[in-house]
């Protein structure tokens, strides 16, 4: 199953769903360039123009047709302009805090697909994966993040969150470039222990995603109220 099918089904009655233009004839039993499946199609040029360069993402790059489901999914503006989770019934646009909960605690729907973005430019449905378990693979910008090992995800997050609350800011957690002043402020031992733990992990997809999901300074302030 391809993510475009889930999105198309979930948005059938959505006010932002773009209909097939009246002057476009639907081709029966065509080959969808996105999924490679035989289905009702429309011209590929309605969705993917000459500027589209990710030909490697297409299951049937030689087809000049695109399935109706793929058309509806890829022309649905929130598929590009938001973070989302979709199960074929609901197209959910979670906040960063809600995404954090889903990554750590799992998604209570199946099958599901999820996309996390801060740039709001890419067709997440072309990269995202369809998951059948509670914990799955998320697409975060241009990387796949395997979050199926829930214990590991929680352990990494807890360690990074503890460092954040100790005074090691998010930019430093991301880069591991810490000034001597901050080392003394948080404690040399605290910094060295975290740096030793984080150094082998900091370039990984999971580490990058968890950095994004760490609490904001506003959240940390609210915890103290």
Percent of residues in helices = 25-40%
| First-residue to last-residue Cα separation | 46 Å
Oligomer status = single chain
The SSE string, one letter per element, is: HEEEHHEEHEHEEHHHHHH
Strand tally = 8
Strand order of the largest sheet: 5-4-6-7-8
Task: Please render the helix and strand layout as text.
Layout: H1 3-10, E1 27-31, E2 38-43, E3 65-67, H2 68-74, H3 77-80, E4 84-86, E5 91-92, H4 96-105, E6 113-116, H5 124-127, E7 137-140, E8 143-146, H6 150-165, H7 170-175, H8 180-186, H9 188-198, H10 205-213, H11 217-223
Parallel strand pairs: 6-7
Antiparallel strand pairs: 1-2, 2-3, 4-5, 4-6, 7-8
Helix pairs in contact: 1-2, 6-10, 8-9
Question: Can you describe what's shown?
Answer:
The chain has a five-stranded mixed β-sheet, with helices on both faces. Strands 1-2-3 form a three-stranded antiparallel β-sheet. Strand 7 and strand 8 form a beta hairpin. The protein is elongated and about 70 Å long. The protein contains eleven helices and eight strands. The mean pLDDT is 95.
């Amino acid at each position: 199953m391809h993510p475009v099918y889930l999105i198309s089904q979930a948005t059938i009655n959505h006010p932002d769903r773009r209909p097939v233009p009246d002057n476009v004839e639907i081709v029966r039993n065509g080959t969808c360039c996105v999924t490679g499946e035989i289905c009702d199609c429309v011209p590929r040029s309605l969705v993917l123009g000459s500027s589209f360069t990710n030909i490697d993402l297409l299951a049937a790059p030689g087809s000049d047709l695109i399935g109706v489901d793929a058309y509806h999914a890829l022309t649905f503006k929130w598929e590009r302009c938001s973070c989302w989770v979709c199960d074929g019934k609901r197209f959910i646009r979670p906040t960063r805090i809600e995404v954090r909960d889903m990554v750590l605690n799992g998604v209570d729907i199946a099958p599901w697909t999820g996309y996390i973005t801060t740039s709001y430019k890419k067709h997440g449905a072309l990269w995202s994966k369809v998951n059948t378990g509670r914990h799955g693979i998320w697409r975060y910008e241009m990387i796949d993040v395997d979050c199926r090992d829930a214990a590991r995800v929680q352990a990494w997050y807890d360690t990074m969150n503890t460092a954040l609350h100790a005074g090691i800011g998010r930019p430093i957690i991301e880069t591991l470039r810490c000034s001597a002043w901050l080392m003394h402020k948080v404690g040399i031992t605290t910094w060295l222990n975290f740096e030793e733990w984080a150094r082998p992990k900091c370039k990984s997809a999971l580490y990058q995603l968890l950095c994004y999901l760490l609490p904001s300074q506003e959240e940390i302030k609210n915890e103290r109220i």
